[in-house]
Amino acid sequence: KDLLEFLIECIFIKINKMILLVKSDNCSNLFDRFVACYKNRFQKNKATVLIFLSESCPICQKYTLTLKSLWAEFGSKNIRFYGVFPSTSVEIDSVKGFAGKYAIPFPLLIDSAQVLTSLVKARITPEAVVLSARGEVLYQGRIDNLFPQIGRKRY
User: pTM of this prediction?
Assistant: First the structure.
């Protein structure tokens, strides 16, 4: 199953800039129209960047400036950014708090069922996954080399 198929099977409930991913077998006509629009937009992007985050991780918090800078540089070049919170126990309010405190400019996805996380095989936070317009993984790994090992800062 590829990313586009997964997106078609999800219901997106938009709360401010956050989107909850909820598996659903029953799709309404309204949802079908939304998915068609979303799929179109996804395919029109040069790339999509998924940043796997944890609201309580100090390293994720430290990277918010870098992520905003990357979004500012590449967001206008038809590259779409999403923050993904894969924790099974993530709370909407804590993600909203993270978004507000760090002024995150791109949508945040709550993937508490870890469907998207499993699909792209994300293993750690923070982790970046860059997808082509067709949903192929072009890059997966560190955001940069600031932290060569967990908890060890380079400089």
Answer: 0.76
